[in-house]
Amino acid sequence: MAAISRLTARRFAAIVLAASLGVLGVAMASQYWGGLSPCELCLLQRWPWRVAIIVSAIALAAGERHPMSLIAVLLGLVFLAGAGLAFYHVGVEQHWFAGPTACTAGGADAGNVDALRAQLIGKQPVLCDQVQWSLVGISLAGWNLLASLGMAAFCIAAARHRRLQQVAV
């Protein structure tokens, strides 16, 4: 909590920006250099990180002229939405939930034009319910869930502490 007490609006925005760029950078590196093709849900999970990059970059440019607690709450909500998407993807991978029909394993029959096109070309679409890569038993969607929850907790703690500071002043 001591580190959060020294957190300025600029530092907060810089931390969120760096973390968001890092997570999105790992996703892009795993795709372009690691050879892991993203599924539909993987691509969807990148959007909250993109939103966080935009919001935190604007907040960083604004410096101390913006209400940090409002930005922190907004970013906390963005990361909670990202955690929800990641949880859904983990659930699809674990077969807790049914995934989108366009990217889950099914029969050999094509259910739509994209699936038929993929079969005709001979390249199967990346399936959302198949884990392509994992580290210590946790898939990339699982790691995204943990990162999103961690960033949401950080943002909410920063907003809460900033509000307490404003009330005390």
Brief descriptors of the model:
169 residues; mainly alpha; Bromodomain-like; two-stranded antiparallel ribbon; 6 helices; elongated
Task: Summarize the structure in words.
Helix content is 68%, strand content 2%. It has a single domain (2-168), classed as Bromodomain-like, CATH 1.20.1550. It has helices spanning 2-5, 9-32, 40-62, 68-93, 113-121, 140-168; strands spanning 134-135, 138-139. The mean pLDDT is 84. It contains six helices and two strands; from the N terminus they run H-H-H-H-H-E-E-H. The chain has a two-stranded antiparallel ribbon with strand order 1-2. It is an all-alpha fold and 169 residues long.
Main sheet specs: 2 strands, antiparallel
Work out the radius of gyration.
Answer: 19 Å
CATH architecture: Up-down Bundle
Structural class designation: mainly alpha
In angstroms, what separates the terminal alpha carbons?
A: 18 Å
Count of domains: 1
What general outline do the C-alpha atoms trace?
Answer: elongated
The proportion of strand residues reads under 5%
Outline of this structure?
Helices cover 68% and strands 2% of the residues. It is built from 6 helices and 2 strands. A two-stranded antiparallel sheet has the order 1-2.
Topology:
Blueprint: H1 2-5, H2 9-32, H3 40-62, H4 68-93, H5 113-121, E1 134-135, E2 138-139, H6 140-168
Antiparallel strand pairs: 1-2
